Amino acid sequence: MNKKIAVLSGDGIGPEVIAQAIKVLDAVAQKFNHTFEYTNALAGAIAIDKTGNPMPDETLQVCLEADAILFGAIGDPKFDNDPNAKVRPEQGLLKIRKEMGLFCNIRPVTTYDSLISKSPLKEERIKGADLVVYRELTGGIYFGEKGRKNDGVVAFDNCEYSVEEIERISKLAFEAAQTRRKKLTLVDKANVLETSRLWRDVVKKMAPSYADVEVDFLFVDNAAMQMIVKPTQFDVILTENMFGDIISDEASVITGSLGLLASASIGAKTAMFEPCHGSYPQAAGKNIANPAATILSAAMMLDYFKLFEEANLVREAVQDSIDKGLSTVDVNPENPQSTSAVGDLIAAYIAKAAVTV
Ligand code: IPM
Ligand code: MG
Q1: Full residue range of the structural domain in which residue 190 is found
Q2: Where is the Isopropylmalate dehydrogenase-like domain (predicted)?
Q3: Of 144, 174, 184, 267, which has the most beta carbons under 10 Å away?
């Protein structure tokens, strides 16, 4: 198989973790006789520094011409600490989501037995937790009309959803539930918000077409609590943009390290794969960041290409490195490996694996 991959390494630890994911993809290509062609493009603070724009048109063009996008991280403290900054790296992320139509953000949360004691949550509560958040990514309050009025003393952010926007992500979430434990939980605030009531209407109407999936509904405040009290009750969580942003960060705590959480953002024509962690500027250039989240995101990309055996092998390799304690400092503070060493180990596992091509 021949695939073109746009690579947007971005800021902070982005380039270091992306380099490991590419190492692993190259090992997969070698092993299974595929060709992955990479095109690098600028995004984030580095793009602002070089072009004044966090998501230059040239980058969007590279993404449009690719089969998928591999994304590192964007963000730089020099912008965070300036409330008057007109351009921010994060705008680049929102722009690429919108321009590429990446409406469905998928964030799987699993536990690794060898890491369960790392979670700040009690072991008996999180053991066996295995859930995935389907977060709507191109609508809602993030993209509604926003502004100031009354001479700037009043601000507003509008939240809007259409039936079509809800249906297209719900379809993917229902289908995912069918391949998993067949439970879908819609997280909303239907006791207060009209948009949430529309989400409920749409999901209720779709449910009979997925008769094997049990559907339930939770208000977001309760869901936030349930996530900590009994995360094992969740299988697929379906939710709108803002609630998904919050609930997925909360859910990440279950895994034990944000450095392990991968994500996929699926659109009608293309898809983007990125670690859930940010640019972690304090670690940039130190070769200490955990590359697992990016490598696992690359595995999700392989799934998207329907290269399931390859994707599973990558996940197995990551699992093996974690089980053997061959991890970065966030996971193994006593005897940490460097970012590049973890990449090497995972690539070597793939190179050695016995597979029939
Ligand atoms: C995320 C991030 C982004 C979001 C920020 C960086 C704009 O928090 O991907 O979850 O809020 O969507
Ligand atoms: Mg977030």
Answers
A1: 120-255
A2: 4-346
A3: 184
Going by C-alpha positions, the residue among 172, 131, 166, 170 that lies closest to residue 266 is 172
Residue owning the nearest CA to atom 5 of ligand 1: 90
The DSSP line for 257-280 is: -GGG-EEEEE-SS-EEEEESS---
Strands 35-40 and 271-275: unpaired
Ligand nearest to C-alpha 142? 1
17-38 average pLDDT score: 98
Q: Are residues 22 and 138 in the same domain?
A: no
- DSSP annotation of 256 reads S
Whichever domain contains 59, its CATH number is 3.40.718.10
Separation between Cα atoms, residue 46 and residue 75, nearest integer Å: 9
Amino acid sitting at position 336: P
Could you give the CA distance from residue 279 to residue 277 in angstroms, rounded to a whole number?
Answer: 7
Helix, strand, coil share of the chain (percent; to 5): 50, 20, 30
Q: Give the domain-ending residue among 189, 220, 255.
A: 255
Q: Would 288 be classed as within a structural domain?
A: yes
Tens of pLDDT along 145-164?
999 999 999 999 999 999 99
Q: How far apart are CA 105 and CA 247, in angstroms?
A: 13
Complete DSSP assignment for 19-62: HHHHHHHHHHHHHHT-EEEEEE---THHHHHHHS-SS-HHHHHH
The model's pLDDT over 247-289, given as tens digits with 9 standing for 90+, comes to 998 998 898 888 999 999 999 999 999 999 999 999 999 999 9
Atom of ligand 1 nearest to the CA of 274: 9
Q: Does residue 112 lie in a domain region?
A: no
Whether residue 132 contacts residue 109, with contact meaning beta carbons closer than 8 Å, is answered with yes
Asked whether the beta carbons of 184 and 215 are under 8 A apart, the reply is: yes
Q: Note whether residue 115 is domain-resident.
A: no
Q: Whose CA is nearest to atom 8 of ligand 1?
A: 245
Q: Are 96 and 163 in a shared domain?
A: no
